[in-house]
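User: tokens in, sequence out, please.
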């Protein structure tokens, strides 16, 4: 049983994309997966509704507040090998509730300075959750996301994130095929299994699984 939460203060940093494609990668290896869409915009549920792929079978909208997310995550962890929680941008109370339950907390971050500034708040939130739990959980990792790796900002992102004191997982590049997969209602491993994007998500999933 494993619970993975994906959180960030800003929108547009690839939280839902990472959550959905991690689910696809774990399902591809034969693990049962439940994805909890805790974002009131329900982007993941909309993605799942576009097709008949793995997300159509495992994404569930969940209520937030009054401990509802934690209760559902714990129940889901008894039903599946992996639970992935997608949290909303800006609603730090929801992200904190997820962090209080998760084994791993992933913090996606783009290469822009504004993305890096926002990381400080959500990192503090994760550390606060660890202190409250009196535990090494959640294990906190940065996940470079939607990065143009050939640019100076992209090349410097890893070192910038490492300077904040947490390890950095394999990066996810800015690739058109990722958006195409969403339009098709599929994860990248289903839509383009031989693509560079798929290799990136597979590397990320392997790194996350090692933490578990």
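Assistant: Sequence out:
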């Amino acid at each position: 049983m494993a619970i993975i939460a994906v959180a960030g203060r800003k929108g547009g940093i690839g939280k839902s994309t990472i959550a959905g494609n991690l689910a696809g990668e774990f399902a591809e290896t034969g693990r049962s997966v439940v994805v909890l869409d805790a974002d009131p915009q329900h982007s993941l549920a909309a993605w799942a509704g576009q097709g008949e792929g793995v997300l159509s079978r495992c994404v569930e909208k969940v209520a937030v507040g009054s401990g509802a997310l934690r209760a559902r995550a714990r129940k889901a962890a008894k039903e599946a090998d992996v639970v992935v929680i997608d949290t909303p941008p800006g609603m730090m109370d929801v992200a904190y509730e997820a962090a209080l339950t998760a084994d791993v907390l992933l913090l996606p971050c783009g290469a822009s300075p504004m993305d890096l500034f926002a990381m400080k708040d959500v990192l503090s939130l994760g550390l606060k959750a660890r202190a409250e739990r009196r535990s090494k959980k959640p294990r906190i990792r940065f996940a470079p996301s939607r990065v143009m790796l050939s640019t100076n900002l992209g090349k410097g992102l890893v070192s910038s994130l490492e300077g904040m004191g947490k390890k950095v997982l394999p990066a996810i590049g800015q690739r058109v095929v990722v958006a195409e997969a969403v339009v098709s209602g599929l994860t990248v491993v289903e839509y383009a299994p031989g693509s560079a994007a798929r290799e990136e998500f597979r590397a990320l999933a392997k790194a996350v699984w090692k933490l578990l």
